[in-house]
Please model this.
Amino acid sequence: MKKRWILTLLLSVTGCSSLSGDLPGRTSIIPKGSLRIFPGYAVAHADIVQVGLLLAAVYMVTDPTAPNWEIVETRLPDNRVLYKLSMQYLHLGGDGEARYVLARRAETLAREQGLAGYQIQRYEEAVDSRIFLPQRTAYAEVQLLAAK
Model:
């Protein structure tokens, strides 16, 4: 939802060239002039807007606040759970944390169901190779242990 709003804002701002009159207009919604940063250096208002839009686009693609791993959980009979973890394509670190993320999720699930704990039956890590943006994945089978 947030990304869609930002994309709509970016497209509307970059697509606007005039507030009124015939399209395409001859005036810009960005005022002419510049911002004086130092006595001998000024930056045009249009350049400031372009840099801001570029930064917003980069933030929208990378989103540093998003979790690095997406978890798909499949519950099976006999208190078994299959996990598939997929790492974001563009990320800042987190390459070695798949097992920790899995353990944290399995512990939470066991606690929610009032069970004693969990045991990892099978664990595999892989990199799905692609020409562009390979993706790190992890697969696991976890046995939830009944309370004693």
Notes: Helices lie at 2-15, 45-62, 98-112.
